[in-house]
TrEMBL record:
GO MF annotation, one: hydrolase activity
Keyword Translocase: no
Lineage, highest ranks first: Bacteria, Pseudomonadati, Bacteroidota, Cytophagia, Cytophagales
Species in which this protein is naturally found: Litoribacter ruber
Domain Carboxyltransferase: 23-283
Name recorded for this polypeptide: Biotin-dependent carboxyltransferase family protein
Keywords from the UniProt entry: ATP-binding, Hydrolase, Nucleotide-binding
Entry-linked SMART domains: AHS2
Pfam families: CT_A_B
Amino acid sequence: MLEILDPGLYCSLQDEGRVAQGDIAVPFSGAMDRQSLHLANHILQNDLNASCLEFASPGPTLKFHYSTTITITGAKAFLVLNGKSIAPANNAILSLKPDDVIKIKTLESGSWAYLGIVGGFDSEKVLGSQSLSPGITVLSGLLKGNTINYSSQDFLFSASSSRVKPAFPWEKVKVLKVRKGPEFSLLPEEIIRKLRTDSFSFTSERNRMAAPIHELLPANRLEILTSPIFPGMVQLTPGGKMILLLMEAQITGGYPRILFMEEPQLNLAVQMKPGQKFMFEIV
């Protein structure tokens, strides 16, 4: 089993999440950056939906009680294995022995990282997913002393196995492509113009539910009936605040849904650092 010695920030178990269950008020949940989740599993030859540990910075400290093989993807991770620094560790295949301890110190060039383990983690599925989610699973995040079982199979990789070169595409993002949301046509021309021409950035007040945008649009009186919402939608408050909805977003909301970001762009957006400037391209 894996033992959590220190969970760090936002450490949880995530897979692709829960789909088609909004009618019973269940959020999607799942990995913030699905591409990085899939990459970890691809490197380890797991099923792409196998659960991984997801965490932000500072990362967790973990003890492995049985031999296994892991990899880390997503944000650039600097880790210490039994007191020895491995920096950066991304996309490397790391073989661990019983009682090995890994401390993930910091994340750079991104906001979320993923630790995949060969064979996947073994935990209870709730509504078809192992993803931890507030109000849905007993734990909303992993705590000090928690343990997670993993496969005891020995799976040896060839010493000549090639390493996937780490890439951090969100570092160079200047434009996020979005589609018009259901209420886009209700926007005043002034707001539409600013959406097309102004630069924006995410605040540091982000979590798994939402990423607020720092720059304000003009105040407005747009109102809608409570309507379905889901990850990737951008809502606009009466005060001009834009909010990008993420994986733990609620199922319905009353703010106008002005833009929508598809998954490849959402994967980039969640990894961008607070203050990193971008423009919207409405496609």
